[in-house]
Amino acid sequence: MKVSVIMGSKSDYKIMKLCEKTLKKLNVPFETKIISAHRTPKRMYEYALKVEKNNIGVIIAGAGGSAHLPGMISALTSVPVLGVPIESKKLKGLDSLLSIAQMPKGIPVGTLAIGEDGAINAALLASSIIGNNNSKIKNKLKSWRSSQTKSVKKKPK
Ligand code: RP5
Prior knowledge:
about 160 residues; alpha/beta; five-stranded parallel β-sheet; 6 helices; 5 strands; binds 5-O-phosphono-beta-D-ribofuranose
Protein backbone atom coordinates (compact mmCIF):
# COMPACT_ATOMS: atom_id res chain seq x y z
CA MET A 1 0.00 0.00 0.00
CA LYS A 2 1.18 3.52 -0.71
CA VAL A 3 0.74 6.96 0.83
CA SER A 4 -0.88 9.69 -1.22
CA VAL A 5 0.41 13.20 -0.51
CA ILE A 6 -1.96 15.88 -1.79
CA MET A 7 -2.03 19.65 -1.40
CA GLY A 8 -4.31 22.52 -2.32
CA SER A 9 -1.72 24.56 -4.22
CA LYS A 10 1.79 24.46 -5.61
CA SER A 11 2.62 27.05 -2.96
CA ASP A 12 2.08 24.34 -0.30
CA TYR A 13 4.86 22.20 -1.77
CA LYS A 14 7.69 23.95 0.09
CA ILE A 15 6.19 22.39 3.25
CA MET A 16 4.73 19.21 1.77
CA LYS A 17 8.03 18.19 0.20
CA LEU A 18 9.11 17.39 3.78
CA CYS A 19 6.50 14.60 3.72
CA GLU A 20 8.14 13.22 0.60
CA LYS A 21 11.61 13.49 2.15
CA THR A 22 10.51 11.63 5.30
CA LEU A 23 8.63 8.91 3.39
CA LYS A 24 11.69 8.38 1.17
CA LYS A 25 13.89 7.90 4.26
CA LEU A 26 11.53 5.18 5.47
CA ASN A 27 11.22 3.52 2.04
CA VAL A 28 7.46 4.11 2.02
CA PRO A 29 5.97 4.21 -1.48
CA PHE A 30 4.07 7.41 -2.23
CA GLU A 31 2.59 9.64 -4.90
CA THR A 32 2.19 13.44 -4.85
CA LYS A 33 -0.59 15.52 -6.41
CA ILE A 34 -2.03 19.03 -6.38
CA ILE A 35 -5.77 18.91 -5.78
CA SER A 36 -7.76 21.96 -4.77
CA ALA A 37 -11.17 21.43 -3.16
CA HIS A 38 -12.48 24.77 -4.42
CA ARG A 39 -10.44 25.34 -7.61
CA THR A 40 -10.46 21.78 -8.96
CA PRO A 41 -13.53 20.15 -7.33
CA LYS A 42 -13.98 17.67 -10.20
CA ARG A 43 -10.33 16.54 -9.88
CA MET A 44 -10.86 16.10 -6.14
CA TYR A 45 -13.99 14.02 -6.63
CA GLU A 46 -12.45 11.80 -9.29
CA TYR A 47 -9.31 11.29 -7.17
CA ALA A 48 -11.33 10.37 -4.06
CA LEU A 49 -13.41 7.79 -5.91
CA LYS A 50 -10.27 5.92 -7.03
CA VAL A 51 -8.40 5.94 -3.71
CA GLU A 52 -9.04 2.29 -2.79
CA LYS A 53 -8.61 1.02 -6.35
CA ASN A 54 -5.23 2.80 -6.43
CA ASN A 55 -4.04 0.91 -3.33
CA ILE A 56 -3.72 4.03 -1.20
CA GLY A 57 -3.54 3.20 2.53
CA VAL A 58 -3.22 6.72 3.96
CA ILE A 59 -3.81 10.18 2.53
CA ILE A 60 -1.82 13.19 3.75
CA ALA A 61 -3.57 16.41 2.75
CA GLY A 62 -1.93 19.81 3.18
CA ALA A 63 -4.05 22.94 2.90
CA GLY A 64 -3.99 26.55 4.03
CA GLY A 65 -6.56 29.21 4.94
CA SER A 66 -10.11 27.88 4.85
CA ALA A 67 -8.54 24.46 4.56
CA HIS A 68 -11.41 22.21 3.52
CA LEU A 69 -9.44 19.73 1.33
CA PRO A 70 -8.69 17.14 4.08
CA GLY A 71 -12.29 17.13 5.33
CA MET A 72 -13.77 16.88 1.84
CA ILE A 73 -11.48 13.98 0.94
CA SER A 74 -12.34 12.23 4.21
CA ALA A 75 -16.03 12.67 3.37
CA LEU A 76 -15.49 10.84 0.09
CA THR A 77 -13.37 7.89 1.28
CA SER A 78 -12.98 5.85 4.46
CA VAL A 79 -9.19 5.58 3.99
CA PRO A 80 -7.53 7.54 6.86
CA VAL A 81 -6.81 11.21 6.11
CA LEU A 82 -4.09 13.16 7.92
CA GLY A 83 -4.31 16.94 7.60
CA VAL A 84 -1.32 19.29 7.56
CA PRO A 85 -2.28 22.93 8.24
CA ILE A 86 -0.20 25.21 6.01
CA GLU A 87 0.84 28.56 7.45
CA SER A 88 -1.30 31.32 5.92
CA LYS A 89 -0.19 34.92 5.37
CA LYS A 90 -2.92 36.67 7.35
CA LEU A 91 -3.48 34.37 10.35
CA LYS A 92 -0.20 32.43 10.45
CA GLY A 93 -1.98 29.10 9.91
CA LEU A 94 -4.37 29.33 12.85
CA ASP A 95 -7.21 29.44 10.29
CA SER A 96 -5.80 26.31 8.58
CA LEU A 97 -5.34 24.50 11.89
CA LEU A 98 -8.85 25.17 13.13
CA SER A 99 -10.43 24.39 9.74
CA ILE A 100 -8.73 20.98 9.69
CA ALA A 101 -9.00 20.09 13.40
CA GLN A 102 -12.56 21.21 14.02
CA MET A 103 -14.30 18.62 11.83
CA PRO A 104 -17.79 17.91 13.14
CA LYS A 105 -18.33 14.34 14.36
CA GLY A 106 -18.85 11.65 11.75
CA ILE A 107 -16.02 12.49 9.33
CA PRO A 108 -12.59 12.48 11.01
CA VAL A 109 -9.33 14.09 9.94
CA GLY A 110 -6.20 13.36 11.99
CA THR A 111 -4.69 16.82 12.40
CA LEU A 112 -0.98 17.51 12.75
CA ALA A 113 0.91 20.66 13.74
CA ILE A 114 1.13 23.74 11.50
CA GLY A 115 3.88 23.71 8.87
CA GLU A 116 7.18 21.77 8.83
CA ASP A 117 6.65 19.78 12.04
CA GLY A 118 3.18 18.75 10.90
CA ALA A 119 4.42 17.65 7.47
CA ILE A 120 7.20 15.51 8.95
CA ASN A 121 4.96 14.03 11.64
CA ALA A 122 2.21 13.29 9.10
CA ALA A 123 4.71 11.21 7.13
CA LEU A 124 5.87 9.41 10.29
CA LEU A 125 2.29 8.69 11.31
CA ALA A 126 1.37 7.52 7.82
CA SER A 127 4.39 5.19 7.94
CA SER A 128 3.21 3.79 11.30
CA ILE A 129 -0.21 3.07 9.82
CA ILE A 130 1.21 1.41 6.69
CA GLY A 131 3.74 -0.38 8.95
CA ASN A 132 0.93 -2.23 10.74
CA ASN A 133 0.73 -4.50 7.70
CA ASN A 134 4.29 -4.18 6.46
CA SER A 135 7.08 -5.43 8.72
CA LYS A 136 9.86 -3.89 6.57
CA ILE A 137 8.40 -0.41 7.03
CA LYS A 138 7.70 -1.07 10.72
CA ASN A 139 11.34 -2.07 11.28
CA LYS A 140 12.63 0.89 9.28
CA LEU A 141 10.55 3.22 11.43
CA LYS A 142 11.86 1.57 14.61
CA SER A 143 15.47 2.02 13.53
CA TRP A 144 14.76 5.64 12.48
CA ARG A 145 13.40 6.31 15.97
CA SER A 146 16.32 4.58 17.58
CA SER A 147 18.85 6.75 15.72
CA GLN A 148 16.84 9.83 16.68
CA THR A 149 17.12 8.76 20.34
CA LYS A 150 20.87 8.17 19.98
CA SER A 151 21.32 11.62 18.43
CA VAL A 152 20.14 13.38 21.62
CA LYS A 153 23.23 14.18 23.69
CA LYS A 154 23.16 13.88 27.46
CA LYS A 155 24.88 17.23 28.00
CA PRO A 156 24.75 20.51 26.09
CA LYS A 157 28.57 20.62 25.75
C1 RP5 B 1 -5.24 26.83 -0.26
O1 RP5 B 1 -5.02 28.19 -0.43
C2 RP5 B 1 -3.91 26.19 -0.51
O2 RP5 B 1 -3.82 25.01 0.24
C3 RP5 B 1 -2.90 27.22 -0.12
O3 RP5 B 1 -2.32 26.96 1.14
C4 RP5 B 1 -3.70 28.51 -0.07
C5 RP5 B 1 -3.13 29.60 -0.95
O4 RP5 B 1 -3.06 29.11 -2.27
P1 RP5 B 1 -2.31 29.96 -3.41
O5 RP5 B 1 -3.03 31.26 -3.51
O6 RP5 B 1 -0.88 30.12 -2.98
O7 RP5 B 1 -2.42 29.12 -4.66
O8 RP5 B 1 -6.18 26.35 -1.15
